């Protein structure tokens, strides 16, 4: 299943709703950009295409496979 990311009225890319965490192999769920912005301890400019790792034992909180970015649990404030 894919959802469209809209920029203006034009879909800029299609990304799937789930992705596998590279660290633990668990399935991650696509996370809303605004929620990610709120959770992170620092600012990120374009929080698109990030997934939330579903494994509570994994150090990774959010990841973006395309950009190879991994936010650890210590990088977020609400968990
Ligand atoms: Zn993980």
Topology:
Elements: E1 2-7, E2 10-16, E3 18-20, E4 27-30, H1 33-39, E5 51-53, E6 60-64, E7 69-72
Antiparallel strand pairs: 1-2, 3-4, 4-5, 5-6, 6-7
The chain binds zinc ion.
Structural category is mainly beta
Report the total helices.
1
| Largest sheet: number of strands, sense, barrel closure | 5 strands, antiparallel
Radius of gyration: 12 Å
Beta-strand residue percentage: 35-45%
Q: Give me the CATH architecture, please.
A: Single Sheet
Q: Summarize the amount of helix as a percent range.
A: under 10%
SSE arrangement, N to C: EEEEHEEE
Oligomer: single chain
- The CATH class assignment is Mainly Beta
Low-confidence stretches: none
Predict the CATH topology: N-terminal domain of TfIIb
How many beta-strand runs?
7
Distinct ligand kinds? zinc ion
Distance between the termini: 28 Å
Shape: globular
Short structural description:
The protein is mainly β and 79 residues long.
Kindly list the characteristics that best describe this protein.
7 strands, 79 residues, N-terminal domain of TfIIb, 5-stranded antiparallel sheet, globular, binds zinc ion, two-stranded antiparallel sheet, mainly beta
């Amino acid at each position: 299943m894919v959802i469209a990311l809209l920029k203006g009225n034009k879909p800029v890319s299609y990304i799937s709703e789930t992705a596998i965490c590279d660290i633990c192999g668990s399935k991650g769920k696509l996370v809303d950009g605004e929620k990610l912005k709120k959770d992170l301890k620092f600012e990120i400019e374009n929080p698109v295409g990030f997934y939330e790792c579903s494994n509570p034992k994994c150090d990774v909180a959010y990841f973006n496979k395309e950009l190879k970015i991994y936010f650890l649990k210590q990088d977020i404030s609400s968990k």
